[in-house]
Amino acid sequence: MNAEVLPIKTAAETALATSFAAVKDALPGAAAVGALREDAFRRFEAEGLPHRRVEEWKYTDLRALMREAKPLAVPPDAAAKARAKDALATLAAIDARRIVFVDGAFVPELSDLASLEPGLTVGSMAQALAGGDRGLLAHLGQVVPTQDVAVALNTAFMGDGALIHVAQGAALAQPLHLVFVNAGREAASIFVRSLVVIESGARAMLVESHVGSSASEDQVNAVLELKVGDAAHVDHIKITDEGAGALHLSTLIAAIGAHARFNEFMFTTGGGVVRNQAFVRFGGEGTVAGIRGASLLKGRQHADTTLVAEHAAADCTSREVFRSVLDDEGRSVFQGKIIVRPHAQKTDAKMVTNALLLSERAEADNKPELEIFADDVQCGHGATSGALDEELLFYLKARGIPAKEAQALLIQAFVGEAVEGIEHAGLRDALMDRVVAWLRARA
Amino acid sequence: MHLLEVKNLHVEVDGKKILNGLDLSVGRGSVHALMGPNGSGKSTLAHVLAGKDAYVVTQGEVLLDGEDILALAPEQRAVRGLFLAFQYPFEIPGVATMTFLRTALNAQRKSRGEAELSTPEFLKRVREVAGKLGIEQEMLRRGVNVGFSGGEKKRNEILQMALLQPRLGVLDETDSGLDIDALKVVAGGVNALRSPERSFVVITHYQRLLNYIVPDVVHVLSRGRIVKTGDKALALDLEATGYAQYQEEMA
Q1: Inter-chain residue contact A405 with B78, CB threshold 8 Å
Q2: Whose CA is closest to A201, among A242, A240, A170, A237?
Q3: pLDDT of residue A215
Q4: Contact A400/B111, CB-based, under 8 Å?
Q5: What is the number of alpha carbons within 13 Å of residue A245 lying toward its C-beta?
Q6: Which residues contact A133 (CB under 8 A, 6 or more apart)?
Q7: Phi, psi of B27 (to 5 degrees)
Q8: How large is the average pLDDT for residues A345-358?
Q9: Residues of A whose CB is below 8 A from B160
């Protein structure tokens, strides 16, 4: 018998199917990407929401964690934009050119679009899809093809997002800050899709922030496809700071050229259930990369970092450093896989994850994997989890530093060692300020 | 009243008795040396004074300026003017020495109801003291003790003591691992802090340090008790005869 097993759909899966049927013709770019959406949705439907028996989602059982699918977000009205404007004030410490999206839609009037630097082009994904833009869109879904189910869902429903191009050799003096604000009155599903192409020899710093009100139960699915040309130098810092009721799925898909420098940093303090995926492919020789992150979780927050770093060319160096600080019943998941393809000789890749558990009920799950098909490489990984060092605490207290402050100092240092990997001093400081604020709220 | 009075102190670690009825009185402005063989309880006393929680006091009391400090947390003892210079100072990656010094100084000042130091004033004080101890500014920007040599770590302890200006400095084998030049620098740092209001308990295994920090009183510790007290000549005697006689007396 070859009967296909079709599991019973969950309420969320059913709602997504109903929603897709209802909106697919109204989503931007029916002509240009209608077929792509259909295919992607079929792929999602075939697999359904991933659950704990799917290895890649073992620690983040989306079927259990996503009980329902919220209705698709509506375009922001004046009130939503006003709320978004207030939310932007919390990002004041990040000195950058802002490109703002409210409830998934590009809002030019909240964005800094004046006097764009030479070589920088900024546009809206929805407009490009609707207009059948044949330029940059050729890269859509092609940067690093993936079968990932969260990406499939995003492709099916993608609405707006940023479409950015940095010309060959252009050096952006100011960081570019993509801000995604959830400001709707009702909880909503938001699917944003961005595409950033940085040509060879260019220099760009990208910050991506996701913020929402503390009470929101929004469901965000964000995908950023990033293409980095040869000898380009790119930093991408992603800040997840939505409310503790939000579900946040995000995927970075990056293809890095030869002799490039690439630094990724994922900083998570917000969201109820967070899954940060990064699929990074080193496709040219001699690139140096750092893929780092820090999560500070409390209450019942769950944050999963799933990383696949694929060394597909020789002589690339990558450092993966992830740290999590877990209070209350906070749970961090780290799944990191380094793949070294047969021709990627002289690869030098080291992955380290450390979890600091501040409570008996906190949990850290680490799953490092190495898949090495070349024979002349240096690859390693290490993982630790534990409590604050009592000896160090005693040393600090013996100098008159109160217990809480001593703890805060050590936690700050622990996170700081990962944050140090960020090259831009202003952004490093902005993140450390957030760490201090998190610690203050804890005390 | 003595600045420090230790009365009939009994201490256990993991159920093992280390201090057995130790008595010690340290007057204001005086330097007491505490000598003794390995395992006699010298470092245990230092840690008990500072408030390390693995050490269980089963009997006795410790008075600092008349106040029983045994029930106080380590940070409260520090605020009251007790300072322990560690034998093995810890490395704290990620916490810059400057941040550490400043946090400690301001925490103490705040607890005592004093105003925090302004940044320029703080920097001026650190530079002054660091300069005397031969500590480079670059070291102060590094993580606490990270990449410091043994001698640099000990100098960093003295730097902390000089900034925090305690009433009682307990130096736990500050001479261990130091060459003669480093020893002189460290001793010079301690001597500069000697004053009629400040006292020191200098714990050491060897007499050598006491050539540079000249004690008023020397005690010999053996099996958790003080078995002999004398002046600085006692240290010289010990150097000549060793500790064996005191261990036998106890047997």
Answers
A1: no
A2: A170
A3: 85
A4: yes
A5: 12
A6: A32, A127, A163
A7: -80, 165
A8: 98
A9: 399
Residues ≥6 apart with Cβ < 8 Å to A316: A282, A285, A286, A287, A288, A289, A344, A347, A348, A349
Of B73, B93, B103, the CB nearest to A405: B103
B47 Cβ neighbours under 8 A, 6+ residues apart: B55, B84, B172
Whole-number pLDDT of residue B240: 87
Contact, A220 vs A120, CB < 8 A? no
Closest to A107 (Cα-Cα) out of A124, A92, A93, A122: A124
Q: Which helix (H) or strand (E) holds A240?
A: strand A233-241
Q: Helix, strand, coil: what percent of chain B each, to 5?
A: 40, 30, 30
Contact (CB<8Å) B90/A417? no
Confidence (pLDDT) at B251: 42
| A433 Cβ contact list (under 8 Å, min separation 6) | A93
Prediction pTM value:
0.91
Adjacent-strand bridge partners of A339: A310, A371
Substitution target from B91, B92, B102 for chain A, most A beta carbons within 10 A? B92
- Cα B126 to Cα A61, B83, B135, B188, distances in angstroms: 54, 18, 10, 17
ipTM of the modeled complex? 0.96
Tell if the CB–CB gap between A397 and B94 is shorter than 8 Å.
Answer: no
